[in-house]
Write a structure and sequence with these properties.
Length: about 190
């Protein structure tokens, strides 16, 4: 296959995989394992986004992650929450998941990428909690009353983000051997001579 045909083939493949992973993430987002009352949930939605980013790189990964955040605004009915919340809790929080693409083609990159991206997502939610949602303090969580917004945000956002991160790591751990070629993008990256 000549170079231009290969590039065209890879572009179509990337678009198709991106659409499939985005749709899968939206389905996983609607199948919440745990739903918190003030937002946040435990689900499998990060898995397809991280998987796509690690295969196709930062640019494509961030685009799909941004699209996921944007579509989630409408699906979750968050349009009425105010622009600060929409910006931070959806668009800015999910876009960094695409940064997993920084570890593309690297052995164990999916695990490092998951940890880095989950931490960045947590950081955005944490900042949102201490700025936008500070007005709801004091808050009770896990039968503990938090009077400081920074503690409340740390406990609240940290609880579901930690579980989401562990779930992603476990799933990628189970899939690493059977999907090794795809996780390392060996089927799409140029061969090393």
């Amino acid at each position: 296959m000549n170079t231009s045909k290969r590039k065209s083939h890879l572009a179509v493949r990337m678009l198709c995989e991106g659409a499939i992973m985005l749709a899968l993430a939206l389905v996983f987002n609607s199948l919440k394992l745990i739903r918190f009352t003030n937002g946040g949930s435990v689900d499998l939605a990060m898995i397809p986004i991280l998987f796509f980013a690690i295969r196709w790189g930062v640019g494509s990964g961030c685009l799909v992650a941004f699209a996921f955040g944007a579509l989630q605004i409408f699906i979750d009915g968050a349009v009425a929450w105010g622009w600060q919340s929409l910006l931070l809790d959806y668009l800015v929080a999910f876009t960094p998941l695409g940064l997993a693409g920084l570890f593309r083609g690297k052995k164990w990159g999916i695990f490092v990428g998951t940890l880095v991206c989950a931490f960045l997502r947590f950081l955005v939610h944490y900042i949102s909690g201490i700025t936008i949602y500070a007005i709801v303090a004091p808050t009770e969580l896990f039968s503990i009353t938090f009077t400081q917004p920074w503690m409340d945000s740390l406990a609240y956002n940290g609880s579901y983000m930690l579980v989401n991160t562990v779930i992603c790591l476990v799933v990628f751990g189970l899939l690493y051997r059977p999907l090794h070629k795809y996780i390392l993008a060996e089927d799409i990256l140029p061969r090393k001579n």
